[in-house]
Amino acid sequence: MTDLQFDREKLRRLRDDFGYFAKHMLRIRTKAGKIEPFQLNQAQRYLHERLEKQRRETGKVRAIILKGRQMGCSTYLQGRFYWRMWGGKGLNAFILTHEQPATDNLFKMTKRYHDLVPDWARHETAASNAKELVFAGRECSYAVATAGTKEVGRSSTVQLLHGSEVAFWPNAEDHVAGLEQAQSDAAGTERVFESTANGIGNVYQRRYKAAERGDSTDIAIFMPWYWDDGYTATPAADWIAGKKWQEYQAVNNLTDGQLYWAFLKNRDMATATGQSDDEPCWKFKQEYPANADEAFQTAGNSFIPSNHVAMARVRSIVPQGALIIGVDPARGGGDKTGVIDRIGRKMGNHICATWDFDDLMTTAGHVVNLIKRYNPAAVNIDVGGIGAGVYDRLAELGYGDVVNAVNFGSNPIGVGPTGDELYANRRAEMWDNLRDWMGGDVQIPNIDSLHADLTAPAWGKGQTRYSSNNELVIEPKDSIRERYGFSPDLGDAAALTFAVPIAAHVMGDDYHEEQGRNATTGY
User: Fold this and answer.
1) Which residues pair with 128 in a beta bridge?
2) Which of 153, 194, 288, 447 could staple 68 via S-S, CB 3.0–4.6 A?
3) CATH assignment of 310-522?
4) Which CATH fold topology does 3-223 show?
5) DSSP-assigned beta bridge partners for residue 28
6) What's the mean per-residue pLDDT of the chain?
7) Buried b (16+ CB within 10 A) or exposed e, 154-174
């Protein structure tokens, strides 16, 4: 083979084989701080194979990635985009991260790739600053930004898009929608959203689950924490794994070193969250998941424990009791009207929905339809805001004996074993009753959005807490919306089903109003 033929073969392989390109052209800073050639680890090889397979089959890449922390996903994607621009023309890469330090780190990573490429292979730059690289004569650019204002990235024309830690973006719904509009659907384009989990119901979790079901153009890619070769530690001589840890090891086929590393990492997290370290705690499973379901259903500082909600989603309960409907009215502003019913220990037997109506009379009309169809013992409506208009209309139509006006902000009524000194308001009292109910043998619809709403109020400063008067205060909607980007409309509707005691004891769908008149009292 002549030198010319060798050079052509080498250039072809550099252009077409990312693993070869990474090893011979790119340098990374390892976790130990050393600068070394970029050789793909197990997780990166798997990710590359999945993306390349999709690109061969569709001509494009559309992927959403769920992974453990610090597994090299961003390192791979920055290298991949640099590789695509190095061997191509007319490609604009845009990276959006969740916080400024991450933005800075990813740009430094790509700048290091460029600066340490062999001299003969380094493209000239027309611009190089703290946020952008522009390659002269190739019409390629690389830019980074931090999620924040809703307009970030909207004005760009992007061929290669990487959304980093999407579950933690503020204004995530708007960012995702805007970025998709900024990207063409042409062959050769790539869009990758990746993140560790951050609860249920946010746009990242919904999109991942849709991809997992095959209901989107994205492919769902999951990478368990134990694929990282660095996540291992030599077990202490006197350490004996407990029963739960032994089960965890068997289920995930872990080495003793991997199990001990997980035990140590979990111990720190369990201590910080006030949990026992005799099994993997919610924080460890969220940040270092062994499977996708584990990652998404382990929000641990929720007022209503996520595991209680998860168990209620898969139970089968025969409905027995009074039919009660909770309605949490809304009209725009990011909120929707939440509506759900409960019959004894089963919730959502007839209705579990959010309505997005601008007209309160339309909302009232839909409630009338529910009353006519299901003949409930009670319809509890929050009247603390615009809901008063819905209640007034229903009372005007003659349903005053069925509808109950409930003001979330009013004084608690102290039903049952509780007293009004235990709660800051009716909303706290109803949510506490809901939490007690969720801890029993109950059933709810197997719906992610309901799970998200029920686990949305969190414990912590400024969130759900006990006041100086030892009164329970439930995290306000505005605080939840700021953290997650959604309002717990269905959660508040579910709490409303515990607003007042109902004199009834009836069987499921056979409820009739006359049966309730001589029944026992209960929720």
Assistant:
1) 133
2) 288
3) 3.30.420.240
4) Rossmann fold (3.40.50)
5) 36
6) 87
7) eebebbbbbbbbbbbbbbbeb
